[in-house]
Every structure is written in structure tokens, then in C-alpha cells.
Amino acid sequence: xxxxxxxxxxxxxxxxxxxxxxxxxxxxxxxxxxxxxxxxxxxxxxxxxxxxxxxxxxxxxxxxxxxxxxxxxxxxxxxxxxxxxxxxxxxxxxxxxxxxxxxxxxxxxxxxxxxxxxxxxxxxxxxxxxxxxxxxxxxxxxxxxxxxxxxxxxxxxxxxxxxxxxxxxxxxxxxxxxxxxxxxxxxxxxxxxxxxxxxxxxxxxxxxxxxxxxxxxxxxxxxxxxxxx
Length: 229
Ligand SMILES: Nc1ncnc2c1ncn2[C@@H]1O[C@H](COP(=O)(O)OP(=O)(O)O)[C@@H](O)[C@H]1O
Ligand SMILES: [Mg+2]
Hints:
It is a single chain. With 229 residues, the protein is an alpha/beta fold. It is 33% helix and 27% strand. It has a domain at 4-94 and 163-226: Rossmann fold, CATH 3.40.50. It is built from 7 helices and 10 strands. It has a 6-stranded mixed beta sheet with strand order 6-7-8-3-9-10, with helices on both faces. The protein is globular. Residues 46-47, 168-169 line the site of magnesium ion.
């Protein structure tokens, strides 16, 4: 069973002369365990597509399926529930809470999961240890480098062991060395957790790191290629 599918999905903004087809009749399917990139220039529709797959937005027409389940017509509460259970997010700008420590930022993802504080702390610490930050648990974001902050974000995305991890331009705010380390880590976690990693980029160097490259231009599917890496 596929982990996520966009089926003839469109997302239009505005109408008449201001109509923007951010995504236009886009069909793509990802299988469990994939390490795939969505690539295209700025404005091509990457974020729009990832927001639909991540259930942060709904299509103007077409269908989004997660783990075999159609999400059509679901309430925002139901969508939030699926998101919480199955999807982890990593953002370009890390999106960490500045006043919280690394471990507290990761713990936020476990909020409402019914675990006691001790269990929560253990799971968050373990997740940070996995991304190589086991000895920086108490640092706040401004006491960490960009690459380290993105590692905290990765730990937060993975702490609930989601089937699908979505990363929108995760290396865009990093220098190439830190960006490569983040990609190495994502790939390692992809292999260990068997979670599907779906990330976006407009950087050809980053694109080369994916096993599958889905190219998007003007909201349309341009190419879908598997490469041997
Ligand atoms: N909320 C919005 N309102 C109007 N147009 C939007 C909105 N969000 C995105 N767009 C437009 O949709 C297109 C695709 O945007 P986006 O998905 O952000 O591209 P990318 O992530 O590849 O840079 C762009 O032309 C953008 O201006
Ligand atoms: Mg974008």
C-alpha cells in the first residue's frame, strides 16, 4: 500500500485574471521507505504539493490519500489526528520555539500523547541522541548552530516514529557542509526507521542525494526519475 498519493490534485488561488494554478492536475505516488525529492525552481509548487500531502492544506480538486486512506471530506480534527499519528515535519527555517531547550522542543511533539513527563523526557532525549545531540539537550536554539537546530527539528519530527517525514527545503538555510550532514542523517534515519522521507529543494546538489527525483514546474509534473544513489 502506498504511503501517500496525490491523485489529479490541483490547488488554485484567486480567480479570473488573478488565478494562480499553484498545483495543476498533479499525480504522484510514494511507497513506504522511499527517499524522494520534489525538485523545481522557486514558485514551481513544491510547498503547495508538500502542504497537501502533509494535510496542512486541501486541494481545490483531486484527491490526497495517506496510508491508503482517502482524506476527502474529512474534518480538520480528523486531518489533525492523521497528521499527528503518521506525519513528521521538518521546515526550512527549523521552526523551533526560541525560549525552550532542545529537549523541550522535541517534547512538544509528544504533547497530548498521554505519556508521563518521565517517559516524554526519555523519548525526547533518545531522539536527540540519535541525531547526535545527546549532550546538548539543554541548549536553546540560539545556542546552537543552524545545522544543530535542524537536527533538533529532525529529532522532533521523528520522536513519534511517523511513517512519513516531510521536509520542505530542509537545507535551504544551511551552508553546504551542514546541509550535507543533515542529508546524511535523513538518509541514515530513512534506512533505520524505514520511514518514507519526502523533501523538496531547488538545489541540484541536494537533488543528487535522493533515490527518486520528482520534478515539478509551474504546478505540473515534469519528470519522475529513479537514480542509483
Ligand atoms: N496563499 C497563496 N496565495 C496566492 N498564491 C500563492 C499562495 N501560495 C502560493 N502561491 C503561488 O503558487 C505558486 C507555487 O508556490 P509554492 O508552492 O510556494 O512554490 P515553491 O515552494 O516551489 O517555491 C507560486 O506562484 C506562488 O506565488
Ligand atoms: Mg517553497
